[in-house]
Amino acid sequence: MAAQRRGGGLLWAALLSGLALNVLDLRRPAFLAVETHQKPVQSRRSFAWAVGAGLLSEPAWAEEEAAPKKKKERPPETLIAEGLESKAIPLNGRWSIVFGKKIAGKPVYKKDGESYFLMTNDCGQLQIDTEKKATCDGSIGIQKESGWVIDGKAAANFKVRPETKEDANKSQGISA
Question: In the record, which residues are listed under signal peptide (predicted)?
Fold first, then answer.
């Protein structure tokens, strides 16, 4: 019984507050009424529909999460250098990655069986040196826009590329 009274009391309070607002509007003098050229206020129903549609729609950040993330490309574990005609500096052959060592955010490679290092320097160029360093003065060789310069001389035929499966099979003596 008490629940019915409380519910009825709330209903009466809501009705009276609505009537009181209407009465206040009627008693307001005309000179206080301000005319505006604004668009009419949306109804409560259209507002509720807009809120509901917003809650049911997929948020913008969900598209970013749903898109497949690009897999970070791993650097090759081995490189092949070839084309150097000089026998004084043995740079032709296989270069293996030095795990855990990076210079300028790029991996460092070591010539198999030698103490030469191939790395990216601070200038963004590949260089060959006897030490792991990022300075732009590759003492043995440096790759410039025109090509490799090794021991102060241009080496147009010298190339460095990732090792392929065929190269790996040749080095292990496996024929396909």
Answer: 1-20
